[in-house]
Design goal:
heterodimer; A: 118 residues; mainly beta; 4-stranded antiparallel β-sheet; globular; B: 110 residues; 6-stranded mixed β-sheet; 5-stranded antiparallel β-sheet
Chain lengths: 118, 110
Amino acid sequence: EAQVTQNPRYLITVTGKKLTVTCSQNMNHEYMSWYRQDPGLGLRQIYYSMNVEVTDKGDVPEGYKVSRKEKRNFPLILESPSPNQTSLYFCASSTAPGFANLAKNIQYFGAGTRLSVL
Amino acid sequence: ELKVEQNPLFLSMQEGKNYTIYCNYSTTSDRLYWYRQDPGKSLESLFVLLSNGAVKQEGRLMASLDTKARLSTLHITAAVHDLSATYFCAVETSGSRLTFGEGTQLTVNP
């Protein structure tokens, strides 16, 4: 079954305590991305990756880091979380544009990680 | 800076009625996506629109793209309660960045 798995699903932490949210996909997708969702703002892209060792900033990258050492994994790292990073986070994956039939290039989303930074 | 605006943001409609959600964007793009999100759930891909004039239909939903007007529409035909959800459009720009609209919260009443 095609899956994007995020962990943890819920996390409460304190300001400044480093954390990592993991994301793994089993579809051999090249493209992976992280979004945050806040009320009234829709989803905003944090970082994305076109392939292993290739990452790029989205619209709101400040305060976040990512890495793509393996194709299946794309962890999101908050080195020093702050309360304004309290949000719902989604990881997603798809076939990268140019690599497949784009008409079928749908994005698969993880279940989400609800993060609270106190 | 790319802006993606959806209209309306909230939509309450009766079962059996038709309605259209609009997605306007401010820069050139040939790729537009529509997603559905149920309350407390993740996002589900609905449509991928890849070129000017593209039209996709699935059940009671039909999406279209006019790249010259920088406008996409999601048309709902004979709405049913199961369509109640939040619908997002997202525009892809160079480098495969995705920018989402704010979402349209649709409620279909019996």
